[in-house]
UniProtKB/TrEMBL annotation:
Segments passing through the bilayer: none
Protein name: Methyltransferase
One Pfam family cited in the UniProt record for this chain: Methyltransf_25
CDD domains for this protein: AdoMet_MTases
Length: 254
């Protein structure tokens, strides 16, 4: 999904998102890595909030996203912070780079935009190719319970002086799919400009994601619910499910 005008208001609307929890979870999992982690690729980096935070933690970061609009904002932020982050515009299911990383992360709904299982498999295979032996892939998805019980057929909205929106989540015909129909009103001087976007998301069962992880050649290290450092999950109780995977050090381990 390539964000359009939404990119311009994304950070303001996401001001309450707990980015620091993603960073903390990532650091804790990387301490368990088989190799020293220095170079990290952030797939679906968006406006760079997680990428920038990991850069501040001392990692060499590359932010990858399909949206030119999102990357433009991310690049502006990195210039302001004088960071050396590399920003690349690429589809995470079709990466065209020979670079190698010690870890790959993919957070905050990105994998849920992969609505076909073949796209999920392509993402896994691409992440595998990016990693050095012993490198880790860490990603999260919405739980099936969250999609079914919290998102499907719900309506959300917010009003501020500068931005207002109404958000319809329509349940799809395929299990655990939703269409997000978003209408924004953004203040431009004394007037409000309207624009609309539609986003499609899907999640799969933990079992399905685990199968894709293993078919790509990864070893599954652990599965977690809602940023917890403890292993274990409940697809009905947890909103997010985190997967920690490792590319084997030796081919014989795959």
């Amino acid at each position: 999904m390539s964000y359009g005008r939404f990119a311009q208001v994304y950070d303001e609307l996401m001001s309450d998102v707990p980015y620091d929890q993603w960073v903390s979870f990532t650091k804790n999992r990387l301490r368990e890595s088989s190799i020293a982690v220095k170079n990290i690729a952030d797939l679906g980096a968006g406006t760079g909030e997680i990428t920038l935070r990991l850069d501040e933690e001392g990692f060499n970061m590359t932010g990858i996203d399909v949206s030119e609009e999102m990357l433009t904002i991310a690049h502006q932020k990195s210039l302001q912070s004088q960071s050396t982050i590399q920003w690349l515009q690429m589809d995470i299911t079709n990466l065209n780079t020979s670079a190698t990383y010690d870890a790959v992360v993919c957070f905050c709904d990105v994998v849920n935009y992969l609505t076909d299982i073949h796209q999920v498999e392509a993402f896994m295979n691409n992440a595998y190719q990016l990693l050095a032996p012993g490198g880790k892939l860490i990603f999260d998805v919405h739980s099936t319970g969250y999609v079914q019980d919290f998102l499907a057929n719900q309506t959300f909205g917010a009003v501020t002086d500068d931005i207002s929106y109404i958000w319809f989540c329509e349940e799809g015909l395929t299990p655990y799919t939703v269409s997000h129909d978003l209408t924004f009103f953004v203040r431009e001087g004394n007037k409000y400009e309207r624009f609309d976007e539609v986003h499609h998301q899907r999640t799969f069962s933990v079992e399905t994601y685990v199968e894709s992880v293993q078919e790509a050649g990864f070893q599954l290290c652990s599965v977690h619910g809602d940023f917890s450092d403890e292993e274990g999950f409940d697809e009905k109780e947890h909103d997010r499910i985190f997967f920690v995977c490792e590319k084997p050090l030796n081919k014989e381990e795959a």
